[in-house]
Amino acid sequence: MPRRVVIVVFDGFQILDLTGPMEVFSAAGRGGWARHGYAVEVVSSAGARARASCGLAVAVDRRLSECRGAIDTLVVVGGDGTAAAVQDVALVRFVAAAARRTRRVTSVCSGAFVLARAGLLDGKRATTHWSQCDRLATAFPDVHVERDPIFVHDGSVWTSAGVTAGMDLALKLVEDDHGADAARSVARWLVLFVQRPGGQAQFSVQLASQPAARAPLRELEAWIPDHLDEDLSVAALAARSAMSERNFARAFRAELGITPGAYVEAMRVEAARRLLESTPAGVAAVAASCGFGTIETMHRSFKRTLGVTPGQYRRHFGPAASA
Fold first, then answer.
1. Catalytic position from the list 54, 67, 109, 290
2. For the chain, what is the domain count?
3. Measured distance CA(143)–CA(165) in Å, rounded
4. What does the pLDDT look like over 12-41, one tens digit per residue?
5. CATH number of the domain that 295 lies in?
6. Are 209 and 215 spatial neighbours (Cβ–Cβ below 8 Å)?
7. β-strands 57-59, 49-51 pairing
8. Fewer CB atoms < 10 Å away: N or C end of the chain?
9. In the annotation, is 109 catalytic?
10. Are 223 and 166 in a shared domain?
């Protein structure tokens, strides 16, 4: 008997949150890599149709109230419509009740907010789209939000990062059900990574710090990007700001929410990313121009902040990859 997958959608959902996992499950069955395959059905509060944020209207198999019986995998999608979905009492109640007759509950992107509203993430580790992690942590303090993973598995609950990460999650579910060979075969057919290198940090805006209140620190923020190959030690930056090292370090962290060292490293990584994405410059030249000094230092910074090496980053995002 096929494994029953129920995907919950709503108006304003992200279309790839639905079609990405659906295609993975479908390919696993069509290719014969998943024994008995998957039977996927799409449900919504209203039934009939749901309109995605891109404008596409998608046929829905049934209303939530008509979805009965045991479920193998429950998937809640995300998207711009999530804000309204978490206020849909019937939808949230359905998810909470359906979870009790489901082997595993999953979300894609901001669908994690629906799981959290249903109380399914209390005390659990979870993730969502990198731009929504802080909001999820603030709105649901009992959820242990992890900002970098592509997906998080905690007990019977799986959550994934944004949009295409739903396909990463679905591949992992296929692997969990049918083994690594099945997941590799599906990934090869769909031209996907079985396990994507790195985490969400490589896709998010590297610096989200607020502008400093003090004029010397604001001026320093504007000056640093154009002088990444110079001495940017705490001592040098403090001297430029006409402050003692101790006072500078304290003020910098208080106003920007990050240490001077971490800020400089992030700026250098951000600059290196742009060069690796848009120019053919060698890794050594990039390392020198961004102030890393050596390839080894840049390699360590990339692994620490992005989870990938400079070479891996260029292969995935550089000019040749774009072409």
1. 109
2. 2
3. 20
4. 999 999 999 999 999 999 999 998 999 999
5. 1.10.10.60
6. no
7. antiparallel
8. C
9. yes
10. no
